[in-house]
Amino acid sequence: MTKTLDEIAAQLRDANKKVQLIYAFNGTGKTRLSRAMKTLIAPRIEGDDTPARNKILYYSAFTEDLFYWDNDLKGDGLPKLVIQPNSFTDWILVDQGQEVNITRVFQHYSKAALTPTFNQAYTRDNEDGSNTEVKAFSEVTFTIEAGDDARTDAFKISKGEESNFIWSIFYTLLETVVAELSIAEPDQRGTDQFNALEYVFVDDPVSSLDENHLIELAVNLANLINKAPAQLRFVITTHSPLFYNVLHNELDLKKKPANDGCYLLERHADGSFTLNTKYGDANKSFTYHLHLRRMLEEAIAQDKVERYHFTLLRNLYEKTAGFLGHDKWGDLLNTAEGNKEAYVRLINTFSHSSLSTEQIADPTPQQKQTVKFLLDNLIDNYGYWKQEAQDV
Do 205 and 38 contact (CB within 8 A), yes or no? Predict the structure, then answer.
């Protein structure tokens, strides 16, 4: 039975499990599910100004949207990562004063010499034209410590480093939360701001990490979850089989009855979803490529090919190429009639995560037909697929 994301959010809430681990392909709706959980757990109520973060913390693309770059191209100033006014960063930076610990985590996952500097602002403009003195962190600059007290001028870090930095803020907050809530007596805690916290939702923090750091992040997150008190419940979503497997093992989910709390989230061509219970880790149970094939065939049959199906098709080619020992997934297009470069360009255009949906038009009927053509090319020309069909 298919469901809406709101219904799946309710299913996760009602399950009342300490940890629920969800595998989902990119483009399935993991980020929107985090938003649906936030709305369900901490709905906006008129007249109630209680921040949602008092009940649920979530890390997702929405968290990254709190930060943007001011490159000051006209004034030739130093680039700054601007923090939009929000209660989340105020909570961890102003209330908890965790700049040093954030830097520690960030440098661990990036470079030891890469140093963030948190710049403070102390005034706020009021509607009546007056100013109110407030302590807030409005921007961050990044430098490289070169030794002998020398450092570079501030510069713009890479997108991957930026993602690591934002995750470091969230992870440091999570460490603080677990430490405080692990103190049994509420009146002995350093703050009461976490006392009502119920859920932590983590959506794919590993997209910019190499394999070694990905594994380490998964182990550290699992250790934190294992130490967390029972009042905290965690929902973790990922598109990475490796990240899923490490968490699955570190959290000992294989010992749970029927892998209680392990799921595969699927999006169907009609926009509905299913949350299927999974057994074993990703290597043993997902049959990743077969799920991809089935989703593509369903969309083709219903003439509902969308942009995200090109991402699925690329993932399918990448997995097959890796299995067969090819360096590039485009090598598998050598058996397809037509312009190989054009096919690669088409798939990259629709699957490239840095291109916004506003920049890319919906696929044309001819482009949708190309999805079928390239899927057929994979199935018809590689014995790997024919063997899998016999095994299913």
Answer: no
Cα–Cα distance for residue pair 265/237, rounded to 1 Å: 9
Asked if the structure places residue 134 within a domain, the reply is no
Does 276 reside within a domain? yes
Q: How many structural domains compose the chain?
A: 2
CA distance 45 to 34: 19
Phi, psi of 384 (to 5 degrees): -50, -45
One domain, residues 291 and 260: no
Instruction: Let me know whether 56 and 163 are in one domain.
Output: yes
What is the per-residue DSSP string for 30-43? HHHHHHHHHHHHS-
276-304 residue pLDDT tens? 887 666 555 455 567 678 888 888 999 98
What's the chain's length in residues? 392
Structure tokens at 351: 């699957």
Rounded mean pLDDT of the chain? 83
Domain that holds residue 326: 287-382
Give per-residue pLDDT as tens, 68-125.
Answer: 998 866 666 789 999 988 888 888 898 889 999 999 999 998 889 999 999 876 655 6
- What sign does the CA torsion over 181, 183, 187, 189 have? negative
**What is the tens place of the pLDDT at every residue in 152-175?**
888 999 988 999 999 999 999 999
Residue where a domain terminates, one of 281, 307, 328: 281
Q: What is the CATH number of the domain that holds 25?
A: 3.40.50
Euclidean distance between CA atoms 222 and 230, whole angstroms: 14
Task: State the helix-helix crossing angle for 159-181 and 211-227, rounded to 10 degrees.
Answer: 20
Instruction: Characterize the bridge pairing of strands 131-147 and 150-151.
Output: antiparallel
Residue 332: its pLDDT value, please?
86
| Paired strand residues for 118 | 140
Q: How far is CA 165 from CA 115, 157, 206, 382, in A?
A: 10, 10, 12, 42
Q: How confident is the model over 179-221, as pLDDT tens digits?
A: 999 999 999 999 898 999 999 999 988 877 777 788 889 999 9
**Rounded Cα–Cα distance for residues 92 and 180 (Å):** 13
- Final residue of a domain: which of 281, 304, 323? 281
What pTM, to 2 d.p., does this model score? 0.73
Looking at the fold, whether 243 and 197 belong to one and the same domain comes out as: yes
